[in-house]
Amino acid sequence: MGLFDSVTHNLAEQALDATWYKQRVITNNIANCDTPDFKAKTVEFGLILKEKCKCKYHEGIKDGIHHADNDEPLRLTVTTTYETNTNQILDGNNVDMEKEQTALADAQYQYGALTDYLNNNYAMIRKAVSK
Fold it and tell me: What is the DSSP letter of 31?
């Protein structure tokens, strides 16, 4: 097992990629707020992880966390769907700027938290290696 092969490290990297993708989708929605017939998209990955993984802890497995059904390592699944919870305006566009700006701020916060988590892990490894 490599230094960066832990389940939590792999999930953090996948979540970082998913959060980056979510920010790209949200900024695309914001950029197209005046485009006729544009339909906003949403990205979900946190809820899917909870529903699909049903994690359990195995005493004998290093890192402990694996998929409950088949003992395969966890993989974060990202889905992109069209927004259906917002009203369309006369030109067919359904981008809600307040919702998008709030979602973007949330995604930026998540990205920053994940970056801090990974940086702290790297700092601990650097400290351990340097002694």
Answer: H
DSSP 72: P
Structure tokens at 103: 């979602």
Return the structure tokens found at 11: 């999930």
The pLDDT of residue 8 is 80
Q: Which backbone phi and psi does 42 adopt, to 5 degrees?
A: -125, 155
Cα angle value 131/118/16 (rounded, 5°): 160
Name residue, tokens 């700092």: 123
Domain of residue 62 covers 7-126
Two structure tokens written together for 97 = 């700027």
The verdict on residue 29 lying in a domain is yes
Low-confidence ranges of the chain (pLDDT < 50): 47, 57-67
Q: What's the total number of domains in the chain?
A: 1
